[in-house]
Amino acid sequence: MLVNCVAYQEGRKLADIPKEDISEYVKRPDCFVWAALKEPSAAELDEMREEFGLHELAVEDAHHGHQRPKIEEYGDSLFAVLHTVETQGDELSVGEVDIFVGPNYVLSTRVGTERGFADVRARCEREPHLLRNGAAYVFYALMDKIVDRYFPVLDALETELETIEEQIFVKNAARSNIEALYELKRKLMTLKHAVDPLMEAVGKLYGGRVPQVCENMGEYFRDVFDHLQRLHATIEGIRDMQTTAIQVNLGMINLNETEVTKKLAGWAAIIAVPTLVAGIWGMNFKHMPELDLEFGYPLAIGLMIALDVVLYLWFKKIRWL
Amino acid sequence: MLVNCVAYQEGRKLADIPKEDISEYVKRPDCFVWAALKEPSAAELDEMREEFGLHELAVEDAHHGHQRPKIEEYGDSLFAVLHTVETQGDELSVGEVDIFVGPNYVLSTRVGTERGFADVRARCEREPHLLRNGAAYVFYALMDKIVDRYFPVLDALETELETIEEQIFVKNAARSNIEALYELKRKLMTLKHAVDPLMEAVGKLYGGRVPQVCENMGEYFRDVFDHLQRLHATIEGIRDMQTTAIQVNLGMINLNETEVTKKLAGWAAIIAVPTLVAGIWGMNFKHMPELDLEFGYPLAIGLMIALDVVLYLWFKKIRWL
Amino acid sequence: MLVNCVAYQEGRKLADIPKEDISEYVKRPDCFVWAALKEPSAAELDEMREEFGLHELAVEDAHHGHQRPKIEEYGDSLFAVLHTVETQGDELSVGEVDIFVGPNYVLSTRVGTERGFADVRARCEREPHLLRNGAAYVFYALMDKIVDRYFPVLDALETELETIEEQIFVKNAARSNIEALYELKRKLMTLKHAVDPLMEAVGKLYGGRVPQVCENMGEYFRDVFDHLQRLHATIEGIRDMQTTAIQVNLGMINLNETEVTKKLAGWAAIIAVPTLVAGIWGMNFKHMPELDLEFGYPLAIGLMIALDVVLYLWFKKIRWL
Amino acid sequence: MLVNCVAYQEGRKLADIPKEDISEYVKRPDCFVWAALKEPSAAELDEMREEFGLHELAVEDAHHGHQRPKIEEYGDSLFAVLHTVETQGDELSVGEVDIFVGPNYVLSTRVGTERGFADVRARCEREPHLLRNGAAYVFYALMDKIVDRYFPVLDALETELETIEEQIFVKNAARSNIEALYELKRKLMTLKHAVDPLMEAVGKLYGGRVPQVCENMGEYFRDVFDHLQRLHATIEGIRDMQTTAIQVNLGMINLNETEVTKKLAGWAAIIAVPTLVAGIWGMNFKHMPELDLEFGYPLAIGLMIALDVVLYLWFKKIRWL
Amino acid sequence: MLVNCVAYQEGRKLADIPKEDISEYVKRPDCFVWAALKEPSAAELDEMREEFGLHELAVEDAHHGHQRPKIEEYGDSLFAVLHTVETQGDELSVGEVDIFVGPNYVLSTRVGTERGFADVRARCEREPHLLRNGAAYVFYALMDKIVDRYFPVLDALETELETIEEQIFVKNAARSNIEALYELKRKLMTLKHAVDPLMEAVGKLYGGRVPQVCENMGEYFRDVFDHLQRLHATIEGIRDMQTTAIQVNLGMINLNETEVTKKLAGWAAIIAVPTLVAGIWGMNFKHMPELDLEFGYPLAIGLMIALDVVLYLWFKKIRWL
Fold first, then answer.
1. Terminal C-alpha separation, chain C
2. Which residue of D has its CA nearest to B186?
3. d(Cα C296, Cα A284) in Å, to the nearest integer?
4. Contact C261/E at CB under 8 A
């Protein structure tokens, strides 16, 4: 579905144009076209390929989807694949944004992404002095927005880790902690698969030899790279702590097992000792003088209780109970 | 066994040719020969060596088999070793495809591979504008097909991981989970050994200095590299999760142990406490007035039951039962 | 808040200058301005941007804060982000110092940092022969001070590790050890996130191509790099030992579990054996001659005690008790 | 001990020569000398040093032995250290082969190696068209043979791993598995220490700048490198699986522990419940009407058995027994 | 403290010189001065700085000590920091040797090192043909000696590992093994921190661009590098085995736990079954005919013993006892 398609000149909006006119505007050296598609059909992609003169292999990639994030050069144009990561309830959902960038056009298509990029267009149109930089600037602005949207997702994961850390030394939380740690790991990996390949790709857009279409924008792309590097470092930091947390959790589970065994041992003793005492006075020897005492029975009960009190205090002292 | 042997000119099939004529057609600058062998004997390989003028070391490698995936230059020709990975019941079976590529010939030999490459030939013949690119294009098409066939195998492994993940926090599934995780790891390693060395090798077919025979095909080989990189990243992702899953599984086993110990303790108490009570009234003291009560016995039984109900509820409350 | 703002000439203090005059002094080729801000507001940063002619992207980074340590070139000026790590009670608190360095100015802003850099300024003013090197020297001096302040923090972490190591083979310390090890890891990661990116960045200030503003100061920046490398190696060393310590701790927990089980088994036997003996003489067989013996009962008790003494000594011998 | 010493010309054997004549033959530009020593004494090495004109540092290394595999250039000659790995009963024994290669000589010395290289010499002499390549070819042939001998050793280790894998989910095999896994690791490390440094060294004998003596032999050395890379990849694969196997083994040990605890709990219940029942009817209450029943006793026994049957079936059902 | 200070000419000792004359001898192009300090005071270092014309930053590093091993260029002179590792009882003690090398002087200072380098000087003076190489040769000789002294330390650690390996599958050795493994790790890390940074630094003294003072000595420094690489590889090998050993140890601890639990279960059954039997005949049913049998009691005891013998044999058979 075509979301919108606008021609710009000197950083200012010229007109909304019908898709049939794209090829015409693209030919004009002084203006550029910025079109956006959403969940495009094969037919729409094909139409766009013809209007913009896109490379067949790139269009095929966009059509099949499920690509790894990457930025590829096709002659003097670029084809970029980015992943969006959005929170949906407790899960992360991954969408794909493909961007075709040529000297005077930008075409973005998004699949499986809830939030669009109308705000990017609005902000660009409010800043004509920057939009004047043309297609590369739009490319930067889209990429910057997508990368910026990773941060709240990562912040949520950091918060998840902190919540787990608060619970990790709490008794009886081991099962929920371990489930939460595994879930956290899965989400981290999702984010990592979006961030790491992109970081690698963006690193080639500034510094040494850069694609012609991105020239003179080095500081902007370095800025995006910088954000990606920060995301990457934070992800690695969380992964590292999460690995340690799993080990610590295992230690806590085993500590807890020991404590249960100690409790079992303590209470077993408290029941078994009076049972032994009762067994002794249950023997059938003829000559057991205390059996004839009037207060023999209450004394026996008293003895049992006394033994148990001693045992109980002893186990409390060595912290087995 | 020679599967087929065809000469092409200008991207179109010229004729099926007998193997004796290969050396003749290979000499013609305007056409190229595409031959395919299946489980070749030493004699067949030798014949091919002479007809195509292959390098001795390459033929020896093809003869011995069990090579690591690789792409080697011998003068102006290439020798490529690729692994095929096919699902056979619950197991993965690895086959080997060796491809000799020269300026105007392609010879492929496959060993231990069930599915052939007739579809590659058919598709190439339907697209003469592409086949016109010659031997390098056929090389690309074969490689692309082999790599494409990795994806369903990997998808199956991803599904296996997901199945395990659904089971990992289920009680009493620890043994089958751990077996499944180990099996998954073995399959992953099989795929990894096919993918990683090939990725490394294909990465040298585009970009900087490339073998002459592959020139001007950079975008195609980059595409294959891209697929391999995606496979590689997914494999690494599964491995990472699988490692964590094994640790989590160990945690679950230990948690389960603790629960068994708790149950043991709970039921032990429920049996031991009335045993103690019975022991007490089994003592032989003369003066135990309650023994003479008419309802002493039912009261005793009632006391035992009451104690057990209290214990049961208590253990339920602290979740030991 | 502007902490101070001074103009220097030939390594000597010229005058405290009001911020409105900065742009004037910065234009003079023979002197340089060194200003310091603390918790700057957006307005203050904007003012500085105009006076010093700072790059917009750098100012934006300084305004948003929470950057990864880095050193970036903007034309002939540098923008550096450093983290300060201070001990606050049992926790580490991270602050940020941003430094803008141009051919004849240095502007530092600090956020969330308790200790200022008045001592750096004082020392620089006492050594005019070094301060004569200009902005790059001030940059070095600030960076050197920040890096120097990491050492006592790291020393404290090393001491923490040693304290844990002394406790690690002590019984019943497993829980506190594991908590301490996790806490140590968290602090290490905090320090690591300050040190590692900075090391990488400083490594580009000497050796091959260096930013013009840092020329001829190579030996100084190599010295800072050297300190960072030492910090890095020590951090990695502690991490490595800490990982092993967690594994060892898990082993100790399991060893302890075994010991508890052994104790449980030993005492269970010591209680159960006389219970069995009592049970035997509690049977109601008619013909049990020993029941009629006068000393039957004390002998029975004696037997029980004897059996228990034997058991006790045996368990002591095999170290189960 | 001098094994043999032969002069070759044009790829053909000229004569067995006494060691005193070596220096003479080495001077002749059209022939080369191939000598082999076994467990050489310091005096023999010294003699060789003079005859061949070897570098002092290289001879010293050969004399001391226990070097890491390496290939070093000394002017226009090479000094190579290789490890042989031989199976001796259940153990691997490591020997050392040192090879000195000059423009027209090859001297090999072997220490602690059972199998010699007579077959290499025999094969070389059968192929004069290859031997004509001179010293570098002999160097290749020796290296190739040593590397080829690693394969059966590695195959044996792979078989060991497979044997363990078959045992790993078998009950009560945990102890022998863990011993076998540790032993496997030790052997793997031995092989790894022979293969990895050599791979690194051989990688410098083809491709870019190569030692002059090895020129034009690139395809041969690449072949050796290829074999080493295959060995390396297989070793890493086994290591990876072995690491996972140890973790899995730990999981199996813990699972087994749980099963033992379950069995203990099950049988404890089966014994304790009738004990309780017996205890109840062992009480001394006056009014226990069932005690007077004629079939009271058999009924009691019947009840005990019935309870145990129920318990047994229950524990079977939940798989505790 | 000045240990000694000697001037050499043409590889031969000229004279012991007082430290005031150093600056004079250093100026002579045909001779060089070799001085050695031990635990130098700040004043002594300052004096040396003036006599030899050392760089301020290098002297400062030597004064502060606790540097990471490194080799730094200051103009045409070198400053090297090396660690000595000496065995002191059961512990390793780390000392520091700093070496200043200029075109015609070598100054070494050692701190915290027991063994001096008198033997290096003696050997150098016995070999004037080598000492003729000047300061770089002395530098090599000192470094070579320090590195050589690492080998016996490492050998001791290898022996420690082997001792542990012999104990690792022995029962009841788990606690001492785990303590020994941790201790081994600590010592390994100490050695590693001495070896690894030095290896990196020495690698820059041969091959490509080398500091001028070390020119033409490449083969000697490669030899030192080679030794360091061997140390490095052995350290890594021990670390790898030690990591596995800790995991194996954990497995042994858990196996042992299982065995204890089995023993507990076995003996519990052997005590509980006759207790049950005694309980049955302790019931008070009127009609229990066997109670009246003359041999009822001995038969009952016999039954108990028989049951226990059966149980004992059974548990022996399944290896629980």
1. 68
2. D241
3. 10
4. yes
Whether D182 contacts D167, CB under 8 Å: no
C309 in contact with chain A, both atoms CB, cutoff 8 A: no
At E48, which amino acid appears? M
Chunked into runs of 10 residues, chain D (321 residues) has average pLDDT values of: 91 91 89 94 93 90 88 92 93 95 94 92 91 92 95 95 93 90 96 95 88 87 93 95 94 93 93 94 91 91 95 94 86
Enumerate residues 6+ apart whose C-beta is below 8 A from C308. C270, C273, C274
Which 8-state DSSP code applies to residue E32? E
Would you state the pLDDT for residue C207? Answer: 81
The ipTM estimated for the assembled molecules is: 0.87
Contact in structure between C39 and C95 (CB atoms under 8 Å): no
Dihedral, CA of residue A161, residue A163, residue A165 and residue A169, to nearest 10:
-150
Name the phi and psi angles at B150, rounded to 5: -70, -30
Determine the Cα–Cα distance for residues B32 and B51; give it in Å rounded to an integer: 13
Token couple for A83? 């992943």
Alpha carbons C304 and A186: distance in angstroms, whole number: 60
- B148: helix, strand or coil: helix
Minimum distance, in Å, between the CA of residue E60 and any CA atom of chain D: 37
Tens-level pLDDT at each residue, chain B (321 residues)? 899 999 999 889 999 999 899 999 998 888 899 999 999 999 999 999 999 999 988 998 899 888 899 999 988 899 999 999 999 988 999 999 999 999 999 999 999 998 999 999 999 999 898 898 889 999 999 999 999 999 999 999 999 999 999 999 998 889 999 999 999 999 999 999 999 999 999 999 988 788 888 888 888 999 999 999 999 999 999 999 999 999 999 999 999 999 999 999 999 999 999 999 999 999 999 989 889 998 999 999 999 999 999 999 999 999 998
CA distance B88 to chain A (A): 27
B229, containing H or E segment: helix B218-281
Contact between chains at B253 and D248 (C-beta distance less than 8 A): no
Q: In what order do the strands lie in the sheet with D12-16?
A: D12-16, D2-9, D31-38, D105-111, D91-102, D77-88, D70-74
Separation between Cα atoms, residue A143 and residue A69, nearest integer Å: 12
Residue of E nearest to C282 (CA): E282
Q: Which of C160, C157, C217, C161 minimizes the C-alpha distance to C189?
A: C157
d(CA B131, CA B121): 10
Residues of B in contact with D246 (CB under 8 A): none
Exposed, middle or buried, A19 (CB in 10 Å: 0-12/13-18/19+)?
A: middle
Residues in chain D: 321
Contacts for C158 with CB less than 8 Å, ≥ 6 apart: C234, C238
Is C261's CB within 8 Å of E260's CB? yes
Q: Is the pLDDT score of A75 beyond 90?
A: no
| Cα gap A85→A151, rounded to integer Å | 10
Tokens for E92, please give them. 């390793």
**Euclidean distance between CA atoms D182 and D162, whole angstroms:** 14
At position B138, the amino acid (one-letter code) is V
Distance CA A260, CA A321 (A): 9
With CA atoms as reference, the chain A residue closest to B229 would be: A68
- The minimal CB distance from D250 to the residues B250, B261, B291 is found for B250
Rounded Cα gap, residues C205 and C223, in angstroms: 11
Structure tokens at A59: 């269009």
For residues A45 and A35, is the Cβ–Cβ distance under 8 A? no
User: Mind telling me how many Å the CA of B156 is from chain A's nearest CA?
Assistant: 16
Please give the helix or strand (H or E) that residue C2 lies within, else none: strand C2-9
Buried b (16+ CB within 10 A) or exposed e, A170-203: eeebbbebbbbbbebbebbbbbbbbbbbbbebbb
